[in-house]
Amino acid sequence: IEAVIQRRAGVDTDLAVPAASPMARPTETQLGQRLREAVQRLRDLAGQLNGVEETIDMIHSQLGSLVTRIQTVDEERRRYEELKTLVSLGSPVAVATFAHRDCPTCLRSLTGLEHQPDLRALDYDQSLRLLTEQSKSLRALEADAQRSVEQQVLVRQSLESQAEQVRRQIRAIRADLVTPDSSPSIADLEER
Prior knowledge:
Shape: rod-shaped
Structural class: mainly alpha
Mean pLDDT: 80
Largest sheet: none
Low-confidence stretches: 2-21
């Protein structure tokens, strides 16, 4: 770009260029400077767009994990509701529930823990309340994450619009660099 500007201008670029009148066509040097600035702005916008895309991808990943956890908690709550119903009908389900030596809530092994007198297990009602609260919390997190995605999509759309405007500006400046000096400035017309 510099070589084209220097060749077309036919002047030493180290010398100061007089300011153009508002209606005059920009000089090659001015067009070159505007082009460099526009290209840098486009690079900055591309970097911001990449950051927004990474954020959206991360939030979608978190949403997937939240949906899986919500399904697990809801299934566990359903099982506890069924166990509570069976116990209220007189079934000896409690022994069968813990016979596999894993916690029915967190699915961790209970080996070595079930005989400790200072540890107390939650009853069915307490477990149901805990699972219901977990479900509410997870659903609130899911709604927050969804709102964040929507906000990031709006940011992305705004950045894409700005980038398209800068691309049009770059095309207009490049067109000015190859058109005769007697023609009106396409870049100035584009700005108006």
